[in-house]
Amino acid sequence: MTDKVSKEFTLEEVAKHNKEGDLWIVVDSKVYDLTRFANLHPGGSNVLYADSVAGKDATQVFFGLHRHEVLLKPQYARLQIGKIAGQEEQIKAPQAGDLSKVPYAEPTWLTSGYHSAYYSDNHRKFQHAVRVFFETVVRPESVKCEDSGKRISQEVVDKMAEVNIIAMRLGPGKHLEGRTLMGGIVKPEEFDYFHESIIHQELARVSSRAVVDGLLAGLVIGLPPVLNYGSSELYNKLVPETFAGKKYVALAISEAFAGSDVGGLQTTAVRDGDYWVVTGTKKWITNGTFADYFTTGCRTETGFTVMLIERGPGVETKQIKTAYSSVAGTAYVTFDKVRVPVSNTLGKIGGGMGVILSNFNHERWMVTATSIAAQRLVVEECLKWATQRIVFGKPLTSQAVIRAKLASMISRVEACQNWFESVTYQMNKMNYSEQSDKLAGPIGLLKQFVSRTGRETAEDATQVFGGRALTTTGMGKLIENYHRTSGFDAILAGAEDVLADLGVRQAIKKMPREARL
Ligand code: HEM
């Protein structure tokens, strides 16, 4: 006995069902009965009754107008009543963990037949497990939360905690000791920055820009000062509850008064015995709407001091509407005479600038990792679209101007990835203070380069997709999202121009006195 979808028809049989009240079509060898669906079709019913569509093989026109995922949705998949005898489906549904076969859709280290100086088989095994996790657990949540603007559910956070993804997003270090990472694929002492970068890049492949931040980016940037500069009491309190996904942290540095110019901050902490009394405001605080702790930069008598402030009396957060989804929890935070134990000070009193500046490196590096993965996805989308889209009777790829745009996009993402890998290798070889000294400049330059190329790629991709890149649903939805949000990479963790300047200033500082032409 054959089931419904394997029932076989000939094209001649399908051709008889070509009118209102009796409408079949073929897409990629599969026969769909659209008789009842026609009136519900979001693109209207009349397009389906066209001579070139009704009762015909509509594969080409279908893929000019819809993403493959439409056919995979249960409500549409069940319209299939059989297949064409002698034909096999060509466009396979991707399986969780699959590597894309589209050229440049994966970095070379994941592309069959290519080699890498940096990645081992352990990284590949790890990457596969992380991709399966993100595609099966995070992607569905990402789609839901991007639309609703609601924070990521506790259920997903719990699953991330279970495999220690939250802990791993903070990089290698003693905080990983004794933990089973991704089911034991990598030992804590072998976990390196390439492993970490895999997590950031896989996350960016399945998520919108806002979800990348909503998935506890605040913790990734707010917790390291506690790990690196906090007392052992603070460490022992925060590490278990945050890595278990039960408490959230935000980094509260920027203010309406000062963004990249950290020196201009106005939030003040005044000493009162064993307490600081903190008053001021913070703006653009990622995850601030739901954070339990705020790693906060304050002006103190002797300079700038960083401290951990727990949500409690005097702490208020309210959501700021931004160009991306409120799933990121972007907040305006007010501290009104908040009493903070002096033991919550991170680093030396008055030594906050060093705490913040050294913390920036990892954050900026992480932003480049996610930005590069997002750009690569845009390249993949453009290559697919330009191949399947027929204009003036030919695929878009037959237009030299489109090929030139693809050339620029591919070159940019490859340049970014290669520079990123080289910096990541240096991070693996350096301790924290060496990184602070030697990599602040290069990471600043790398980040400004990556965010700039990202916006150029967003522009190019928008031209390739045309009007489809302007709608939040349908063929160009990822391009629309990327175009709308790629600017975040250029601002968050240090504005592009400031970082370019930082990189050059660091280089000038290190110019040898004897250097002459
Ligand atoms: C199994 C068959 C089909 C299903 C399940 C289906 C489903 C959909 C869905 C869900 C949309 C909304 C946009 C999106 O989410 O991508 C859509 C839009 C559309 N569909 Fe279909 N469709 C089918 C076949 C066709 C065919 C054969 C044509 C041929 C002309 C067609 C023409 C359109 C058009 C013109 C739009 C509007 C596109 C836009 O706004 O850019 N559809 N369809």
From TrEMBL:
It holds the Pfam family Acyl-CoA_dh_M. SUPFAM superfamilies: Acyl-CoA dehydrogenase C-terminal domain-like, Acyl-CoA dehydrogenase NM domain-like, Cytochrome b5-like heme/steroid binding domain. It comes from the Eukaryota. SMART domains: Cyt-b5 (SM01117). Signal peptide: none annotated. One of its GO terms (molecular function) is acyl-CoA dehydrogenase activity. Its cofactor is FAD. PANTHER family: ACYL-COA DEHYDROGENASE FAMILY PROTEIN (AFU_ORTHOLOGUE AFUA_6G10880)-RELATED, MEDIUM-CHAIN SPECIFIC ACYL-COA DEHYDROGENASE, MITOCHONDRIAL-RELATED. Belongs to the acyl-CoA dehydrogenase family. This is Peroxisomal acyl-CoA-dehydrogenase. It comes from Crucibulum laeve.
